[in-house]
Amino acid sequence: MIERTLQQIAEMLGCEAEQTRGEIHIQGVTTDTRTIQPGNLFIPLIGDQFDGHAYAADAYTKGASAILWQTDHGTPPEGVPFIRVADTLEALQQLAKAYRKQLPVRIIGITGSNGKTTTKDLVAAVLGSTFHVHKTKGNLNNHIGLPLTLLQLQETTQFAVVEMGMSGRGEIELLSLLAEPEAAIITMIGESHMLQLGSLEEIARAKAEIVSGMLSGGLFVYNGDEPLIEQALAERSLGDKGRQVAESPTTLPDGLRRFRFGSGVGNDLFPTDIRMDADGTYFRINSPGYPELYIPLLGTHNVINALAAVAIGEAYGVQPELIAAGLRSLQMTSMRIEKLTAASGLTVLNDAYNASPASMRAAIALTEELRGFGRKILVLGDMLELGEHEEQFHREIGAMLSPERIDYVITFGRLGRLIADEAAPNYPKEHVRAFDDKEQLCAELAELTRATDIVLVKGSRGMRLEQVVQALLA
Fold first, then answer.
1. pTM, full prediction
2. What are 107-124's pLDDT values in tens digits?
3. CATH number of the CATH domain containing 351
């Protein structure tokens, strides 16, 4: 974490420290009084429903060494050392950028519509086999979280693997300019943020903003199966002409190197064989000198994510056997698909944390690929925040389902019913059921499921389908 004197931090912000008594040492920063550690610099942020300045005195009482104070907020608490700044959020970002520039750390930035967190963990596991690595913790991937991540870096950190999230245009650009990544990854382009951005083309342009802050000669690793990434890069390469087409804010960095991964054989790196067991996935790749690789994750989509990690490992000289060891030892930030077993023996795939059309298709494909189970049952809820095309996206999911691969389709919610409507003509009677009452759905599942079955539960967080998971396990 950042360790500087208060005066040094003031200089990094272009300000003066005030009300100081001797030299004050800062160890780390926080924006939350509930996580105050002795020696922290407390940065009070302002939100729609809160103002951190109200907690500044409490932060000092709990052990903070000093605070930042926004100039339009009157007088700071009496006796508390502080640095007066024009805007506390901008100061947090400026401090993170200044600290990053003082470190020799090499930063890998990761974005994409799906798979960011998994890929971050995979890249960190591969690099961690050889180097001292720090990775984004939890969901600290936005305009507040990424600066906090940078300020957590140790002076000895060799690589930082940082996740970059967004909800609209310009956000990834800001994060990239703060972090100045040496390498960047786009995992894929999907329908997440369709409500905010309106089209896949615009989503691709927003994700391509990750190159904005990249260092000259940097490495851009991206999913070559997705032509929209190439299109967004081409627009940027046009400079001013590109801005007329796509409002691209910058051109490409000088000497940008490109590397494509994906399922297609036209990519620089692709899988040549994939097989799964109960707990993970084995695969081989087209790059020579590699043993069979293994990840403790299920699904072809996770193999594709792992290819990005292999590419980064190769680029930084990690030996194939260490890349293999890193992938095998993967520690996930959070399990996006939890494989759970009920007391009865029923297998439940819990993916009730989030849902987009791309992640829904990937979870269904995983369920179809798994072997050794009796019947395969889908419990699918609404996918939220998809904008004006939300009905079309749900109908497309229903149309892709086949009784040859999935035995039962159970849906919950108004939009989920559209999945059922599209699937029903292809299925035997009673094998597709739509519910608006969750208790009734759970009761029907209790009657339907057998110990040898596998059930995928997938929907947006707002549908609270974890309640269905709990009922199945009970």
1. 0.83
2. 999 999 888 999 999 999
3. 3.90.190.20
